[in-house]
Amino acid sequence: MRRKRNDCRSPATTDLQAACANGPVGEMDLDFSGKAALVTGSTRGIGLACAQLLARRGARVAISSRKADVCEQVAANLRSEGCDAVAIPAHAARDDDLARLVSGTVEAFGTLDIAVACAGINPSFDPLTDLSEASWAKVLDTNLSGPLRLARHALPAMGPGGAMVAVSSVNAGFAMPGSGAYGISKAALEQMVRQLAVEWGPHGIRVNAVSPGTTDTDMIRALKQRPGFIDRITADTPLGRIADSADIAHAIAFFASDHAAHVTGQVLVVDGGQTIMRGTYPENTKTGEE
Ligand SMILES: NC(=O)c1ccc[n+]([C@@H]2O[C@H](COP(=O)([O-])OP(=O)(O)OC[C@H]3O[C@@H](n4cnc5c(N)ncnc54)[C@H](OP(=O)(O)O)[C@@H]3O)[C@@H](O)[C@H]2O)c1
């Protein structure tokens, strides 16, 4: 595999490479040199970690969220590291904004190779039948229609080798009190990814999704304050911790990279095993077979 050094790699990455240099396990060589990417919702949390990872591995990146000043600050920080980044504010549900995000990226970088639909919301914990029409519409508009609108603009702007990655959620696969519209929007998003993968495969463009479990970002700030919330999740997670944004960013980067050149229409769950474990026997329980 080709290995190219990048000026703006983080010190942590360099340490990891050094630590792994002589061992059996090495770091995947993610090289996005020459590629242009856009990431919706990239001023905080998973989107920010993803944009930083892509940029530090050589991609030219368009930073986007609703707040122009914050986008510019994130882009400026990346430029100060030697990365190539521009700020293009856009509401992730608005068609005009998303059209401008795509055309602005192509204008800035001359191409578009990677589109990450990361922005997503879960603003209401009401039961599904109590949810207002407005809340339902807002969640579906942002989490499902927004990525479709982005795809409509981004995929035709890409050439063969292009990749779109949508950020779903493990909530797509199970029902949870207070997460009705959100889970439905993400389940439909995963089906949309499969549909787009079929339609865009013949053009050499791949479409995949990453499905995070509970991830330590602002999105779960309110939940984290509930007593016992994190303890309960970590106890029910084989790997014993919630995800951080970098865990999810690496999975997104894999799908965006040429390492995934023959992978399309897939959903990669990144949850520390949260969704494959269902409780435990009480301690000291005997099986009955001695
Ligand atoms: N955190 C979790 O536990 C978790 C688990 C599973 C899946 N996810 C998914 O991961 C994705 C990212 O979540 P996160 O936890 O990183 O969220 P976050 O920390 O709350 O960050 C959200 C980002 O999206 C932007 N944003 C929010 N609404 C937007 C809109 N309408 N248009 C454009 N940008 C918008 C925010 O900036 P502005 O507010 O300035 O616009 C910010 O940059 C979402 O799709 C979410 O559903 C998260």
UniProtKB/TrEMBL annotation:
PROSITE patterns: ADH_SHORT. InterPro entries: KR_dom (IPR057326), NAD(P)-bd_dom_sf (IPR036291), Sc_DH/Rdtase_CS (IPR020904), SDR_fam (IPR002347). SUPFAM superfamilies: NAD(P)-binding Rossmann-fold domains. Gene3D superfamilies: NAD(P)-binding Rossmann-like Domain. Signal peptide: none annotated. It holds the Pfam family adh_short_C2. Residues 35-213 form the Ketoreductase domain. CDD domains: SDR_c (cd05233). Belongs to the short-chain dehydrogenases/reductases (SDR) family. This is Dehydrogenase.
